[in-house]
Design a protein that fits this description.
Blueprint: H1 10-25, E1 34-41, H2 50-59, E2 66-71, E3 75-79, H3 81-86, E4 102-106, H4 114-127, E5 130-133, H5 142-153, E6 158-160, H6 162-170, H7 174-205
Helix pairs in contact: 2-6
Length: about 210
């Protein structure tokens, strides 16, 4: 998260989460195969991971060394103290539309989060079925690697949900469309100004 204080847009979070849960409820794009979804995110050599896109799409920022576990009846977010504070505005014990209650878990480095992993895995087992994840992604993070090892040790079967989230991210809301239009206008204006200078330079050389 860096030294600069970042803020989670509560409305943005619940609007996006609503879209995710609506798609999950309709069991689209293979989401019918999973009863829980987990996104573990850490440092990676690949800046274009789906986990990174998920964080930017839902939170507006990439939040390193966190685990987001989405269940049909609850959302759990595991992170350090500062990161737990970041998510404070969306913590609730009530449903918000289709979005279930949201809770945070504070990392415990004394046992390398073994206890926290156990809690999350118990929730996954209680939900039944398979766990949706971005199974092909690799991270340079002891935290994320330890989480994946814990899933393996508990025989949690992971199903790749990359395609489902690719389709989810492809649907743009009004704010995203407005940003795209503004970006296109800026690009067009910049190119028009630059082209005029290039033509002027070429004419002077002649």
């Amino acid at each position: 998260m860096g030294d600069k204080r970042v803020v989670l847009n509560k409305d943005h979070f619940f609007q996006r989460a609503e879209r995710l849960y609506e798609r999950w409820e309709k069991e689209e794009d293979g989401l019918d195969a999973v009863k829980s979804l987990a996104v573990a995110y850490g440092d990676s050599d690949n800046p274009y991971t789906k986990s990174s896109a998920f964080h930017t799409w839902l939170f507006g920022h990439e939040i390193n060394d966190t685990i987001v576990l989405l269940l049909k009846d609850h959302v759990y977010i595991l992170g350090s103290n500062r990161k737990v504070e970041f998510f404070g505005s969306v913590v609730t014990d009530q449903y918000t539309g289709r979005v279930p209650p949201v809770s945070t878990l504070l990392r415990d480095k004394s046992d390398k989060d073994a206890g926290n992993f156990e809690k999350l895995i118990d929730h996954i087992k209680s939900a039944g079925g398979d766990l949706g994840a971005f199974v092909k992604e690799k991270f340079n993070s002891d935290f994320v690697n330890a989480w994946n090892d814990a899933l393996t040790e508990h025989d949690i079967n992971k199903v790749d949900v990359t395609l489902a989230f690719t389709h989810l991210f492809a649907v743009k809301d009004d704010k995203e469309l407005d940003l795209l239009r503004k970006s296109a206008q800026v690009t067009s204006s910049s190119w028009t100004a630059a082209r005029g200078k290039y033509v002027e330079i070429i004419d002077q050389e002649k």
